[in-house]
Amino acid sequence: MSCAIWEERVALFAGGDLETGEAAAVERHLNQCAACSALAADLRLELDGLRQVHAEPLAAGHYAAVRGRVLAELAKPPRRRLVWPWAWAAALAVAAAGACVVWVMIKPAAIPAPELPRLLAVAPTAQRSRDRQGAVISAHVRRRRTERAAPSVNEQRRLEVAEVVRPPSPRPPAAEDSPVRMVQLATADPNVVIYWLFEEKGEER
Amino acid sequence: MKALALAAAELGDEPEGRDVTLEAARAGDRAAFDLLMRRHERLVLGTAYRLAGNLEDAQDASQEVFLRLYRNLAKLEAGNLAAWLYRVTVNVCHDARRRRPGTVPVDDAPELAAAGDPQQSADQAEQRALLLRSLRMLSEKERAALVLRDLEGLSTAEVAGVLGSSVGTVRSQISKARLKMRDFVERYSRRRL
């Protein structure tokens, strides 16, 4: 049985891997310890045997076979490079991002802004409580103001309807006497017409 | 790097000057590359054989090493070629071993003790087979360190450079590997008795 604390150093000593000082210390120990000395002898024997085995050359055919395989591989036409899955994923991501950009750019053109309401007519409506002389009639459309000299047939009909629903008045209402006015606005949708009723003070009905 | 420089000189490389064969191979000369392989095939196949443990795997590994050599010709320098080949050979063998794990642990080698008649097989061939078998009992790193140091004759520092380890680590791996081999041989000898 060798000394456990010396084993590693003896193993290195057997292969000539110790510095001069260390090797001398191990050598002194080997002179005193038969077990470690036997261990060192065994290790040297095994290393020598292994080196002899390794020194035996392989058959020339084995080397030639490797060379032949390598040259045959090199003679093959170059293979197409594999496109890795992550490359496909990256390409898809780029394509999706591009599609989003294009969609954002063309979206405003595809969906036009809604047309602003057009003023069709301003008409007096039924007087609510009392007449006010000199009432100012005004209708203001901020962005676009379209006034027509002659309303269309439909517009005329709407105006007539507005006249019909007006409640009877003790005296015929004059446009300038009535503080309550109706403004009829047409939108881009022919089914939607906006009626705006207002008073002089701005109180809407 | 004395041993590696010596190996390179023996193989025909010229660390101080130009290596005409290497330059011709770089230029695409297949005959020059064939010559380059012939120069280094002993180093590559011999090392791979000891690391892989069988000739078939060693040849596969050697083929891969030479193909990598061909692909990296432009980056390599003649003076570093031997060290580069050792490093790539070790890496390729380790990769192959990871793909096909087949290490026989030290405690699981009864077939060796039971194989053949002990009386008839106590000769050099058996001792040779026993030593090679003991090499296969080592871990990857221990085997690589021992093969490069004891069989290929590299210094401890050169082995450390090839394996990318410190000198201290390599010394530890080498001493453990030698002791494991010795234990294996001793155990086998006791079984025979």
List the topology elements.
The complex is a heterodimer of chains A (205) and B (193).
Chain A: H1 4-14, H2 20-32, H3 34-55, H4 60-75, H5 85-110, E1 118-124, H6 153-164, E2 181-186, E3 193-198
Antiparallel strand pairs in A: 1-2, 2-3
Helix pairs in contact in A: 1-2, 1-3, 2-3
Chain B: H1 2-10, H2 20-26, H3 30-52, H4 55-71, H5 81-99, H6 110-114, H7 124-136, H8 140-151, H9 156-163, H10 167-192
Keywords:
A: mainly alpha, three-stranded antiparallel β-sheet, 3 strands, B: 193 residues, Rna Polymerase Sigma Factor, Chain: A, 2 domains
Could you explain how this protein is built, in words?
The complex is a heterodimer of chains A (205) and B (193). By secondary structure, chain A is mainly alpha-helical. A 3-stranded antiparallel β-sheet of chain A has the order 1-2-3, covered by helices on one side. In chain A, helix 1 packs across helix 2 and helix 2 packs across helix 3. Among the domains of chain A are: 57 residues; 81 residues, no CATH class. In chain A, strand 2 and strand 3 form a beta hairpin. Chain A is elongated, with a radius of gyration of 53 Å. Chain A has 6 helices and 3 strands; from the N terminus they run H-H-H-H-H-E-H-E-E. With 193 residues, chain B is an all-alpha fold. Chain B folds into 2 domains: 102 residues, Rna Polymerase Sigma Factor, Chain: A (Orthogonal Bundle), CATH 1.10.1740.10; 88 residues, Winged helix-like DNA-binding domain superfamily/Winged helix DNA-binding domain (Arc Repressor Mutant, subunit A), CATH 1.10.10. Helix content of chain B is 72%, strand content 0%. The longest helix of chain B has 26 residues. Chain B is elongated.
